[in-house]
Amino acid sequence: MAEDERQIEFLYDVELELSVILGSSRMLIRDLLKLATGSVVELNKLAGESLDVVINDKVIARGEAVVVNEKFGIRLTEVVSPYERVRQLRD
After folding, report:
1. Which residues contact 19 (CB under 8 A, 6 or more apart)?
2. I need a labelling partner for 8 at 20 to 30 A (CA). Which of 34, 41, 73, 89 fits?
3. pTM here?
4. What does the H/E/C string look like for the chain?
């Protein structure tokens, strides 16, 4: 095991919450209050566009939605480099 890896090994069991962002939208409170069952909210992403994989509000990867054993999953198509992930943590 490399020296650098031993120095951060204690972090391996730390749990982080991972989210997949389908898209987002901004709306006025008056429009929010009009939402009802069956309402459609338009998101800022196009159909077929990559979904963002986010930890602590930082994008760490992108991918596409898949179904695995009747549950949604994500197939990663792009992973942010380790250097970039660490840099984002500092920002």
Report:
1. 53, 54, 55
2. 73
3. 0.71
4. CCHHHHHHHHHCCCCCCEEEECCCCCCCHHHHHHCCCCCCCCCCCCCCCCEEEEECCEEEEEEEEEEECCEEEEEEEEECCHHHHHHHHHC
Give the domains, in start order, of the chain with CATH numbers. Answer: 3-90 (2.30.330.10)
Instruction: Please report, for residues 14, 21, 25, 88, the alpha-carbon distance to residue 64 in angstroms, rounded to integers and kept in the order given.
Output: 26, 11, 20, 22
Q: Contact 77/53 with Cβ under 8 angstroms?
A: no
Where does residue 88 rank: exposed (0-12), middle (13-18), buried (19+ CB within 10 A)?
A: middle
Which residue type, as a one-letter code, is found at position 15?
E
* pLDDT above 70: percentage of residues in the chain: 91
